[in-house]
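DM from R.C. (forwarded with permission)

"hey, sorry to bug you on a friday — could you get me a structure for this? deadline for the figure draft is monday and I only need the backbone to look sensible"
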Amino acid sequence: MLLNEDKNAMLRRELTEETIETVAALGLENTTTNAICKTCGVNVAYIYRFFSDKEDLIAKSFADADRRFLEVILDNYTVLNYESIDYESRCHYLCLLPFVNEKNVSGIYRVFFHKPRHAKEKESGILRVLVLSFIGMGICAVSLCGATWAWFTATTSAGTAVIQAASYTVTVTAKSDEENLNIAVKDGVSTAVLEAEKKYTVTLTPGGTATAGYCKITLGGKDYYTGQLTADTLAFKVSAAKKQELTVTPQWGSYSGEATVEKNSILTSE
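My reply, with the result:
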């Protein structure tokens, strides 16, 4: 019989202790009997062996924790008048002070609760509950300010860096059977004047620092596009029915459409 009583007492204490842990982890509204029993590893029927319902379990769990908290405080600092604080406030503090242990409880209690025996009551119970919240917010603010100060005061140095965009150029030559044409270049655009009823061989030689580029070729008001030109030259033929201009405009990058000018292509105009 004594063994069973000891076992029941241990089980009851385990239920009350795990109830405090469950409330701290999930909050009072989300704490259920199933959650408590899952933490304890026992069947939910054991709760109703010792307690009438969930509310009775939670109330007695906080009462037991409050009593044990009081015993630890009185053992370490016997002049503290902890019992003068209303029960509801003490329950709030048990939830708000998860860092309290036997080593630091005396100092924490003396800062927040202790007052001289003859001091007058100047603050309400709710104010005592809020004091710790304000102090916690103050500590968080100080920590955040410290981190922000460290962030904005960190310095680094580096040498002067020069950023220069890549360039892409194309050298254009055009010749007929009789002569080489003069190529006029302005702002990177090459222009050649083609004579009527003549055939020309046009050669494009890419240059510059860019790794990719292409050309837009305009003849007779129509635009033609090469594929990507890197290191190799591109030669194609042009036949003009009348005197007109041929312009070659280099473009940096890759042409997204289908190339209309390839090696040995023949461009004609009316």
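R.C.: lifesaver. Strands lie at 168-175, 184-186, 189-194, 198-208, 213-219, 222-225, 234-240, 244-252, 266-269.
me: no worries. The chain is about 40% helix and 20% strand.
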